Amino acid sequence: MNKKIIIADDHFVVRLGTTLILESHYNGIRIAHAESYSELVSKLHAEEFNLLILDINMPESQYLKMIGEIKAIQPSLKILVFSVYDDDIAAQYIIEGADGYINKLSDESNIVEAVEQVFQTGKYYSPDIMTRIVAYAKKDVPAHPLDSLSEREKEIFDLLLKGYGNIEISNELNLHLSTISTYKTRVFKKLNIKNTIDLVRLGEQNRSHKFK
Length: 212
Description:
- This protein has helices spanning 12-25, 37-46, 65-73, 87-96, 108-121, 127-137, 151-161, 166-173, 177-191, 196-205; strands at 4-8, 30-34, 51-54, 78-83, 100-103.
- It folds into two domains: 4-137, 3-Layer(aba) Sandwich (Rossmann fold), CATH 3.40.50; 145-205, Winged helix-like DNA-binding domain superfamily/Winged helix DNA-binding domain (Arc Repressor Mutant, subunit A, Orthogonal Bundle).
- The protein is elongated and about 65 Å long.
- It is 53% helix and 11% strand.
- The chain is of the alpha/beta class.
- Helix 4 packs across helix 6 (127-137) and helix 8 (166-173) packs across helix 9.
């Protein structure tokens, strides 16, 4: 297989491990690495690649904006998002133009299958992601998980991102503390997160998102 792949991830172990997996299954591939978004952009300007395996949490990255920026540099480049985020987030990157998604928790066979599918068909979508995208196309679910929040839930979400605790939110919105706890539980459930750390990560990842 005469293909050029670039793995963009700020963790050396991930880059090395993914490289070893791919080199053990494919002969003749060339693999380059980038440990920051700026380094990735520089290498894409300098050389053409067939496939980008992209971590969406790299330093200096602008998250969803990355896909469009990368495609503007190399329109024919296939982008396989490689992350630990769930299918709701993955679907957003596919809607933005990524060609597939593979979870970092996947086993070796899944990683090889994803790369194989992208090279053979140009796309790799897991059944769960396809279900999410089809549901969005039918308007059964919001395009973005944050858009599933009610107006009040959005207020709670924003205040939690600012570091407010339940008591501070209660004072800010003039609502009973028990009401804040109820809204907070709803927000966590709708966004499929377990704690405030997950919420902050989600907010950081989608900092450019505009609520509908």
